Hints:
With 467 residues, the protein is α+β, with helices and mostly antiparallel strands. Helices cover 52% and strands 9% of the residues. It is globular, with a radius of gyration of 22 Å.
Amino acid sequence: xxxxxxxxxxxxxxxxxxxxxxxxxxxxxxxxxxxxxxxxxxxxxxxxxxxxxxxxxxxxxxxxxxxxxxxxxxxxxxxxxxxxxxxxxxxxxxxxxxxxxxxxxxxxxxxxxxxxxxxxxxxxxxxxxxxxxxxxxxxxxxxxxxxxxxxxxxxxxxxxxxxxxxxxxxxxxxxxxxxxxxxxxxxxxxxxxxxxxxxxxxxxxxxxxxxxxxxxxxxxxxxxxxxxxxxxxxxxxxxxxxxxxxxxxxxxxxxxxxxxxxxxxxxxxxxxxxxxxxxxxxxxxxxxxxxxxxxxxxxxxxxxxxxxxxxxxxxxxxxxxxxxxxxxxxxxxxxxxxxxxxxxxxxxxxxxxxxxxxxxxxxxxxxxxxxxxxxxxxxxxxxxxxxxxxxxxxxxxxxxxxxxxxxxxxxxxxxxxxxxxxxxxxxxxxxxxxxxxxxxxxxxxxxxxxxxxxxxxxxxxxxxxxx
Length: 467
Ligand code: HEM
C-alpha cells in the first residue's frame, strides 16, 4: 500500500495553510505534486486529492458498498440520522423521501416567497452608503429556509425560531470551529458542543452548580449549545403538532415530512425528521448565500457582464417587476452562476471515505483513506477550460458540462440533494436583486477566500445601492 506524494509539512502546518488560504493551498500543492496528491490533516485519515477527470468519473461511479459517508469536516453534530452520514439502503431510502419536496410543483410553489424575501430584504438596506452584501444574502437564504423548509408564517413564529437558530449557526460556523476541528479532531468539537447542549437543557444539580449557573450560561460554547437545544425543541413541537392536528394548507418541507411515508408505509420518526431538517438548514443556508456572494463578487465589477444581465432582464420583464415564475428562463444569468461556481466553488472538494482498498492509477489506497475529488483545481485546468481564470459565462451557454470536470454540487449517489432547489432559488434572488436595485461594486478586485465552517466564502463583499 502506498499513497501519492504531497506536501511534506506537518499535519498541523498543512491545516493552518489550508485554513488560511484554501484555494491557494490546493492550487500550489497541485502545481508542485501534480493532479493527484495527498494532504494530511491532524486527526484525519490521509486525503488523496484528485483533479483528474478519468479518476473523478470512476469515483463518482463507485457502488454504495465501496464508499462510506465521511464525517470529517463537519463541526456540528447533525444527529445520527442525517443524510450526510447515512450509508447504503438507509441513505437511499432517505434520499427518496426527501427528494419530492425539493423538486417539481412543490419547488415552484416557493418562487413567490423567494422573490418577496429578496425584495423585502433589499428594501430594508440603506441607500448611498456601502452595505454588507454578504450579510444581506445570508439573511435572504436564511429567511427562505425559515419559510419554505420550516414553514414559518408570521413574525412571532419567525422571531421565536430565528433567534436561537442564528445564535447557533453564528457560534458554530466560525473559522475558529473549523481550525479547532482540524487541529483537535472534528468528533471532539461536535461532542463538546453536544455536551454543552445537554447541560443547557438540564436544571443545575447541587448548590455549587446553582451558584455557578449564571456564569456557565454565559460561556460561549454553552450559549451555542443552549441555542441548539432550543432549535431542536421548537422543531420537535411543530412536527408533533403537524402529526397530531394535520397540516392544513401548509406546503413547507417540515409539514410535508411530518406526513411523509417510506415505500413500506412507515412514517419517519420525529427524531429522524429533526436530523434531516437541520441537515437541510446547514446544507442549504451558507452554501447558497456564499455562492450568490461569489457570483456578485465576479459580476458587479464587470461592466460588460452586468450590462448583458440587465439586457436579459429587460428582454424578459421589460421595465416592470421580475416574475419569479419565469426566472428559470434567464439563460445568461444562469451561466453567470455556473461560471462563478466554476471559478470559486464553495466546496473546494467532496470527500469519499474508502470502505475497501482502491486502485487509483499506480497507487493502491487502503480502506479508510479519504478520496477528495477537487472542484477548485479541476475547474481551472488549462487543458479543460480555455482561458481558465477568466470570468466568461458564455462557455456555459452551449449546454451541459460533464460532472468529471465540473461538479460544484458533487457527483454520483451523494450529489447534492438540494441542487435543483438551490439553482431555482439563486436565479430568483439574483434576478430580483439586479432588477430592483442598482448595485455597484465598492471594491474592483475579487475578495480573498475565507473558510467558513463547511464552505468557502468571500472574506467580504460590499456594494453600494444607488436606486
Ligand atoms: C449553491 C448551493 C449549494 C451548493 C453549492 C451545494 C453543494 C453541495 C455539495 C458539493 C455536496 C456534496 C456532494 C457530494 O458529496 O458529492 C452537497 C451535499 C448535500 N447538500 Fe448541498 N449545496 C447547495 C445547496 C443545498 C441546499 C439548498 C440543500 C437543502 C435544501 C442542500 C442539501 C444537501 C444535502 C442534504 C447534502 C448531502 C447529500 C447526501 O449525502 O446524499 N444543499 N451539497
